[in-house]
Amino acid sequence: MKVLLALLAVLCTLVSPVEAGDTLPFLTIDGETASPRTLSEAEFKALPRTAVRVKDRSGKEHSYEGVSLGFLLGLAGVPLKQNLKHGEVAKFLHAQGRDGYAAVFALPEFDRQDYLVADTADGKALEPATGPLQIVLPAEPRRSRWVKQLVLLRIVRSREVRF
Ligand SMILES: Nc1nc2c(c(=O)[nH]1)N[C@H]1C(S)=C(S)[C@@H](COP(=O)(O)O)O[C@H]1N2
Ligand SMILES: [Mo]
To answer: Domain spanning 22-155 has what CATH number?
Structure first.
């Protein structure tokens, strides 16, 4: 019986999506990178902060603040900018929200500075439906990569296709 229960527990953890509620770290950066890590809310808040200004659909400007997405990847040892060489360009970022929604980014995209993991908008913490963290991309009015409730930044290596 005990063995069966243990097996069931293992199976449950294997099939459950990234949705483990309170047990989920604030932000996880993992995958094919030199120093995968998790960040607590306090650790995130202590990182160097940047701000970007973005116009919404009605033309109203909003100020988002948080930590540069490239900086966060750098913390986990992801090679970027001049360190992004040769085979490393086959890697990409899979960014995922608590609901499982995901968007991908190629690593050379982080040559630009204005990709943000925001925790505030106009000086206030993001709404629960959006935060506590959201990817904010000032250059992308189509907001499909503005992953809400961001919990995971995973580096994935694209596999060689053999013919
Ligand atoms: N976690 C999560 N983030 C998400 C989505 C989602 O379904 N889940 N939808 C995306 C898409 S397709 C769009 S257009 C915007 C919509 O957000 P808005 O209605 O606040 O502009 O959120 C993006 N971020
Ligand atoms: Mo969308």
So the answer is: 3.90.420.10
Residue 101 beta carbon below 6 angstroms from any ligand 1 atom: yes
Q: Does the beta carbon of 140 lie inside 6 Å of ligand 1?
A: no
Most ligand 1 atoms within 8 A of CB, residue of 144, 150, 152, 153 to mutate: 144
Quick one: pLDDT at residue 82? 87
pTM above 0.90, yes or no: no
- The protein residue whose alpha carbon is closest to atom 17 in ligand 1 is 143
Q: What are the sequence ranges of the domains in the chain?
A: 22-155
Q: What is the DSSP string of 66-95?
A: EEEHHHHHHHTT---GGG--GGGGGEEEEE
What is the SS3 assignment for 117? strand
Q: What is the pLDDT of residues 42-81, one digit of tens each?
A: 999 999 999 999 999 899 999 999 999 999 999 999 999 8
Angle at 152 (CA atoms; ends 54, 124), nearest 5 degrees: 40
pLDDT value, residue 78: 95
